[in-house]
Amino acid sequence: MSALTLKGPYWVTARQHRRVLWAIPAVVAASLAAVVALRTGAGDPYSDPSSLVPPPPDRWYDLLRLSMQSAGTALLFLPMLVGAFVAGPMTARELESGTWRLALSQSTTARAWLGAKVLVAAGVCVLGSAALAGVYRLGWVRVYGTYQLHWADRGPYEAGGPVLAAYCLLGVAAGVLVGQLVRRTLAAMAVTGLLVGLMLLALGALRWSFLPVRTVITPFPRGSAAGGQPGSSLLMDSGLVTATGGRLPMYACFERTGNMNACPADMNVIGRYADFHPVSHYWPTQLIETSLVLALAAVLLYAAFRLVRTRQG
Questions:
Q1: Residue ranges of the domains in the chain?
Q2: Among 163, 173, 165, 172, which Cα is nearest to 203's?
Q3: What are the residues facing 237 on neighbouring strands?
Q4: Pairwise CA distance, residues 40 & 136, whole Å
Q5: Is residue 19 over pLDDT 70?
Q6: What would the pLDDT profile of 207-217 be if each residue is shown by its tens digit?
Q7: Per-residue pLDDT tens for 66-101?
Q8: CB 111 within 8 A of CB 308
Q9: Whole-angstrom distance, CA of residue 133 vs CA of residue 257
Q10: What's the CA gap between 199 and 259, in Å, rounded?
Q11: What is the per-residue pLDDT for 205?
Q12: Phi first, then psi: what are they for 224, rounded to 5°?
């Protein structure tokens, strides 16, 4: 057990932020208890889709679904919260008050001082985010596919996979870098939260271009593009196909004929198309995005450790 005991700057860092460290397992335990309770009480309102009688309201199921919607949104903000905490209370506050020099006077180098903060924060983030992602998936699989709980929706996508831990590590890397550059607690927290949020938005906008879409074409006017598309897929684009292989907007014929199923002969429309991502693209996309986020975090960490050398002495 003594080998597992934190020593030196690692012990100091954990000691300084022990309340936050204890709060994380408490949040995980409370979340797990709540999800288990809601899953136990929830019925299945779609157990007999052939029944003509609508099922009675299931308050436990509805509460579980609303809780998963809220939890997905909350976990989406977790990397920003992590980055703000690392940038402010963990890094900038010590630089602002000058207490970091006390650590350097105790036979600790600037790199060791920063490394302790990075390793403690990273270790807690990985364990905590992995636990929260597991708890989220436990509840999410029970209400999967309902409104705002599709596998590709913002929130459920980030909250239920390894990309959540990667973004939290990105928050740690951005936090230690911005904390050193800004050196003001509140300002560093605001800048880091905004920076991590922008990176979340940017990579989120790009993620569905990592893998090529699949395309299904159905005859016009008998078929529909949605008819050949798996129900659990993510629709990216749809429209009309001409005899030459060209594509037209879905409402191109309607604008001229007033009928979705009738097209002028000169348009040469022969079918409807749909570009989509199947559910099988979920894990490959998660792994690709996780790798990109970790690479970006490594770049920011490299910059942070290069910068800390100038603080020595």
A1: 2-210+281-311, 214-280
A2: 163
A3: 275
A4: 15
A5: yes
A6: 999 999 999 98
A7: 999 999 999 999 999 999 999 999 999 988 887 777
A8: yes
A9: 50
A10: 43
A11: 94
A12: -135, 145
